[in-house]
Design goal:
- With about 150 residues, this protein is an alpha+beta fold.
- Helix content is about 30%, strand content about 25%.
- The protein is built from five helices and five strands; from the N terminus they run H-E-E-H-H-H-E-E-E-H.
- It has a five-stranded antiparallel beta sheet with strand order 2-1-5-4-3.
- The radius of gyration is 17 Å and the shape is globular.
- The termini are far apart.
Amino acid sequence: MDGLKKVDSQAHWGRAIFDAFPLPAFIVDEDVRILDFNVAAEAFLGAAPRSALRRRGGEVLHCVCAGTAGCGKSKSCKSCLIRNSVRAALNGEDACRKFCHAELRGSRGPVPVNLLVTACLLPETKMPQVLLVLENVAETVRLCKRQPGA
């Protein structure tokens, strides 16, 4: 197999694996701008998922903190677990799942969401890129709260 066919085949396999992954996953840059996303992430992105490209994650996902200042610009963004996980990955820290309680803007006000956030630096990219996985664990949290002693 010549070099060009090998690269094309690797990209095809990578895309197939990325899209088969059952959790919403995004490729983001250092400012949490969405560069790519998998099929599972489309549900997070609404009716026109392609419109999310090159926009910051908090704006696309309707984070209440993104508000008028924009994602990454408000005071509370300094403690954003998603943003800080991306930063940690860029600094070479190993990927680990962290629990995040966030609020998204809904049509009737803030909607609480419980996520497990995983961020991992992607190797050998021209500009630094991070794989960001957002796992909605609201149902798990709800079930745990119903258990005696929880």
